[in-house]
Amino acid sequence: MTNYNKSPMTKIKGQENTCIVGKEDIIQTLKTAIKDKKTIVFDTYVGVYDDEILAILKALNPKTIIDMKSIFKEEETITEQLKAHLTDDRTFGKMYYGEVLDFMEEDKLEQARAQVQKADDLTFVYGFGASLVTKGDLLVYFDMARWEIQLRYRKGMGNYKCSNFDEESLRKNKRGYFIEWRIADKHKMTVFNDVDFFIDTNIENHPKMVTGQALREGLKQIAKQPFRTVPYFDPGVWGGQWMKEVCGLDPEKPNYAWSFDGVPEENSLYLDFENDYIEIPAMDLVLYQPVQLLGEHVYSRFGAEFPIRFDFLDTIDGQPLSLQVHPLTEYIKKEFGMTYTQDESYYILDAKEGAHVFLGIKEGIDPQSMIDDLRKANKGEILFDAEKYINKFPAKKHDHFLIPAGTCHCSGNNAMVLEISATPYIFTFKLWDWGRVGMDGKPRPINVERGKEVIQWNRTTDWVKENLVNAVYEVEKNEHYVEEHTGLHELEFIETRRYWINDEITVQTKGNVNMLNLIEGKEAVIESPNHEFDPYIVHYAETFIVPASVKEYSIRSTDPNEKIGVIRAYVR
Fold first, then answer.
1. Which of 117, 406, 411, 476 yields a CA-CA distance of 20 to 30 A from 142?
2. CB 562 within 8 A of CB 524
3. Are 237 and 439 in contact (CB under 8 A)?
4. Which structural domains are found in the chain, ordered by start?
């Protein structure tokens, strides 16, 4: 029986019973709040269902509603303005570092501001960027998680002020990832401290609301204690069967290929206010409490970004991943506007007989011959012989394969991978996909021409064996625990330590955010030696985060007779 928690909640103290649930109760609360007020601002994240929200607002009987969509430029103008950032590529764009104002008509914005100033009756300003018109007498923010936005794209929702309803979700995700989510997050943080009410809009027709004070207090609490983000799972053409059983997923699904469990840029947080909970993007925490969460060292290096991610790749009783390579730092900066790249590693959480990992180039191969064969294979002229060119290493439970950018790699079948990596997660140049199509029946994007620009041809068999395959050494051993260094490679900024704990270990964060996973054992408890936070329970395969503000913490099994294993990642 699995004990993996798919819906981890963080209890918010001192704000009990402050969650207001459902349209009717929210309307009644807002009616009271807006009494004797003139201008009410309803700002939104991109992706909310405007028709659903506007129905709530009309029940409040405003005299006038100013809809922000009328202030934004026309769709064709915005798309032309973003042409260089959207690119023609299905997957990759260029990071946009501008702001919401870039897409508004300045004269229409000024007209809206003047209209608000002249208004004598109850006036609402609604939509994405509404607080740029005015902060008003009351500010309400409608928030949304990125995973829910992506699911809505699949169901036919277009991007903001776009009629691309039938466009493939890859391209919608690209517009969100490179542009919309960036400017939306930047704008949200300019008003975060001013928001009077936050409304969770993730469940259609079932909004939930808390006061701004309650949410901000909740985030301050989370930044001082261990917590988990809310994982999500998705099937894929290569997906396996392990997560179904261990994570307690729907057995009727054909497979589950991957999961994000510990990716604050993508995952949500559930905040438990006793009478109910709300879901918010975990990025709200990163953006609102960056120093407390990340530590000054990480914050000064990366800004308000969470630089580490843990995710699952399940190929047990499935198929191999695509053969791939990730861009070097200079390439990702030049081509996509990213400041750091997708360095990775595969920690083998579990494996069946015959599991293997492809990693690095074989000795003595001709690079041009490999590229020519990849081109021919992707045209359907031949089948690419991966074992002719790429090293194939057997993989067993608790192996750790290090994958600095520029290294050709993929997991074969029958491996359950805990991927410990840098946060950028879409910059995969697929070289060969074994002749498959995606679950939608369309060919998956192949990027041989980009890949050949970044493949490090000198990472051949002997170098890979010495540097990237189980580069493990013992750091400390005593009667309580064994500490091992397992990675990552010196070219990567993440350090990983593995602990085999007989009874208990105390870990110092040294002002650096820690991300961990219980890789062996049924259950562990994370405790504060100084009782600064309540004991925190984690289960097998669960990823959890310990903020930098937690100076030290202990880890022990809840069963004194059980030895447990934990892997910990932090920024060097």
1. 117
2. no
3. yes
4. 9-222 (3.40.50), 232-467 (2.60.120.10)
Report how far residue 303's alpha carbon sits from residue 306's, in angstroms, rounded to the nearest whole number. Answer: 8
Structural contact between residues 518 and 540, judged by C-beta atoms closer than 8 angstroms: yes
Secondary structure in 3-state letters for 292-344: HHHCHHHHHHHCCCCCEEEEEEECCCCCCCCEEECCCHHHHHHHHCCCCCCCE
The answer to whether residues 542 and 487 touch, using CB atoms and an 8 Å cutoff, is no
Q: How far is CA 379 from CA 231, 290, 323, 352, 366, in A?
A: 37, 47, 16, 33, 20
Q: What is the per-residue DSSP string for 172-224?
A: HHHHIIIIIHHHHHHHHHHHGGG-SEEEE--STT--EEEEHHHHHHHHHHHTT
One-letter amino acid for residue 147 of the chain: W
The residue assigned the tokens 């829910």 is 148
156: helix, coil or strand?
A: coil
> How far is 566 from 504, CA to CA, in rounded Å?
11
Choose among 507, 490, 504, 508: nearest CA to 572: 490
Per-residue pLDDT, 425: 84
Side-chain-side CA neighbours of residue 152 (13 Å): 19
Q: Look up residue 101 and give its two tokens.
A: 């104002």
Q: Tokens 């070219």 label which residue?
A: 491
pLDDT value at residue 1: 58
**Residue 152: both structure tokens together:** 């809505």
Angle at 186 between CA 276 and CA 168, to 5 degrees: 80
For residue 431, give both structure tokens: 């070289």
At 359, the amino acid letter reads L
Alpha-carbon 521 to chain mean position? 26
Q: Contact at 8 Å (CB) between 407 and 456?
A: yes
The pTM of the full predicted model, rounded to 2 decimals, is: 0.97
Amino acid at site 546:
V
Helix residue ranges per DSSP H, 119-166? 146-155
Q: Which residues of the chain are modeled with pLDDT < 50?
A: none
pLDDT for 98: 97
Provide the 8-state DSSP code for 70: G
